[in-house]
Structures are given as C-alpha cells and as structure tokens.
Fold each of these.
Amino acid sequence: MKKKAKRKGPKKAAKKGQKKSVKKIKKTAKNRTVQKSAKPAEYKTVFISLGSNVGDREEYIEQAITLLRETPGIKVIRRSSNFETQPQGRKNQPLFINAAVEISTNYSPQNLLELLQGFEDTLGRDRSLEWGPRTIDMDILLYSNELISEDNLTVPHPLMHERLFVLEPLKEIAPNVVHPILERTIKELYHDKKAEGMESEKYDEDLPGFREVKRGIADDYERW
C-alpha cells in the first residue's frame, strides 16, 4: 500500500516562499551595490593651454590635441586657433605657437595632470631648463569651477590672468567663462591685460581666496 505524499501546510509553504524572497532581495541589493560602485565618474569641463617653440610648432600642437582626442575618458569639445607669441622668462629663444582646448573628462585633476605630463614626455619635452624652449607645454587652466591647491597642481592656474598668450586663445573659445576667484570673464581679463600693455609677474595676494590657490607655486612648479 502506497503512502500518500504529505501535503505541506500553508505555513511551511509560505515560510519557504519567504526565504526565496529574502534571497532575491539580497541578490538584487548586491547587484545594485555593484552597479553603483561601477558608475563612471562625472564628466567635468576643463580648459588646457598648449605651447610650442621647438621644431614644427604647429605639428606638435596638433599631435598633442590628437593624443587628447584618442584618450578614453576625454572628449575634445573645441580648440582655438594657433597664435604666435613672444617667449616669456628667457627672451633669447624662438617664438611660441600657443593654443587652448576645451575638453570634457572624467579624469581627476591629479590623473589628468599625470596624463598631460606623459604626453609632454612622449612629444620630447625637455625639462632641464626652466622657462626654456619646449616641444610642447600643456597646462590645466580651469577644472570646472574647482579650486585646487596641491604641491604639484594649482587651479585656476595662478598666472593665467597675467598671460596674454594664454588669455587670447582661451578668449576665442570661452569668452564668457568666469574665473572662479577673480569673478571676471575670460574676455574681461583679456581686455584688462591688453589695456596694461605689458606682462608682469605679480600675484593678486589681496584677492579673496587667491593666496590659497597660489600656494602650489614653488621652485619645482612647472611654470611658463
């Protein structure tokens, strides 16, 4: 005589179903956590200056921009024209070609700095002579509206408002962008500097916040 299969009571069936639901919820939560941690970093708008006064200057500028375009995590939004400018610091050297680019990137400021320095090395940058000739120079001018003061990086670049060769190409692509400390547009800064009719080495120490962001200027700081 066959034994009848025991029917599971409603309580046991419900309990088993509840266990399955809990497992499903835990698994879903775990998946959401993984997805959240894998979320890509937010893209920021960054402005970079470029300069070259060695060899085929225009070609070095183009190669630097190409390296930016080909880097995952970086989108080149727009670039300026090339401007020929007088050298600063050491006058006895060839004229520069200067340009500026706007990029959108999810690189952190420090990672972007390392990337740009790697590009400079790739394109034969010689760092042995301060203020000297260079195949390519790439500097972070603005990183969104962030204020950065670290040993090897100061943003906004503390000399950008003093350099016509920086402001002129930047004005072409971002005239209405506001300097986050000086609270003036790039176009206004350019015309202010143009009206002075000269370059200077001064720092605006009395401006609120400027002393904090210029701390990165040191003997080993990459100046131009």
Amino acid sequence: MRTAVLSDIHANIQALEAVLKDSREQGADRFWMLGDYIDYGGSPVETMERLETFDISQMIAGNHDACLYLESVRSSATPHGRKAYEFTRAVVRENRRRFSMLETIVHRPMAYIPECGTLLVHGTPEDPYWGKFQAGDDPEDLFHAMEERDVRLMLMGHSHTSFLLTKDGRRIINPGSVGQPRDGCPEASYVILDGDTVIFRRVKYDIGGAADAIQKAGLPEYLWQRLYTGR
C-alpha cells in the first residue's frame, strides 16, 4: 500500500486540498496523520469537515489540538500564538460537533503499529506533545528510544521541517508541514511511503486564499505573511 503521511495542517484548507489531490494522483490509498490539524490558520471548521470525508488509518493529536481540551498540555505562547489559540477556542466552542474527531484523540499524541514496527508521534517519545527535534540535532537519543521500543520506523511532526535519518536499519522521518512549512519553501510538504521507498512531496497551493482566511479571522498579520516565505 502507498501511505500518505501528513502533519501540521494548522487549519489551512487550501494546502490540505492541494495535498489530498496530489496524494490521489500519486496513488496513495491510506493516510496517517501526525497532529496539529487546527490553530494558526483561518479555516478550522472547513479543515475538520474535510478530514471527516476520507478514511484515515492512523490519527494522533498534536499540542495545538490537545491544548483546546487538556489544561495540562497548555503552555506559554507568543502574543500571536495566544491570539490564534483564543480564535480557535472560540470557534470550537461554537461548533463543538464539528470538532468531535479531535476530542476522541487528544489523549493520543503517539501510536505504535506493531505489524510494521512503526511509531507515530507528534513531538518526541519522551515529550510526545511538545518535544521538538530539528534536522541537525543529535538523533542518538531518538534511535536509542526506537531500539528500546522495537521500532523500525518513527514518524514525527511538530518541527514543520522534513527530514530522513537512518541508522542500523532504523529510520526517522518527518514529513514536514502541510499548512505551515518552516524550512524556507512555502509549498505544502508531506511524505508517501511505498514499501521501503520514501517519497518527499512538495505541492503548490493557493497561499493567497489561505492568507485571506487568516486576515478575515482577525488574526495577526505575521501568521499570514509567513506563509509566503515558508518560515
């Protein structure tokens, strides 16, 4: 099977639609989702409605998803981050049924698939909500955690940057961010797994439409300006 791995959509329906179209064209027949479906972007309701329309085989929560329901996960944020959270929280309160999918996964920031020795985690195994591993960081602790858990493949999000690391037959993959890339390329980022083959995909999308949605939501201009630079 061809598996599309998506992370960090962040209420960017334009980017999500572009990635779903591309994944179909690439022959993906199942989806694994690594969290942070909402917040920052201006289309949280539309994003959740779209996620409900296709079959998701594995779905875990990110810190932004859990923050809406679990006070223990909430952390200090930047001023624009707090405004984004307040906007999203208000939308969720007014449309709770639309976000029922999130309520079912907020306690699940990590999932293990034993039949393929794969671990899905939003952050890191030690800090599954907030742990951030960046490309260039020392991966030894991650590979050690994989060995302890009998994990051959670890898929992780949260950093919004894509990478592939290998050691002794084990692999760590970050698919990057669908809705808010931060690696200097503004195109939506995701990964397709085809057996042992890893295919990193970058997809152009309607950034202007996503920026307009953020502006109409009354969110800080920083949140839409960064979409054009991928930072």
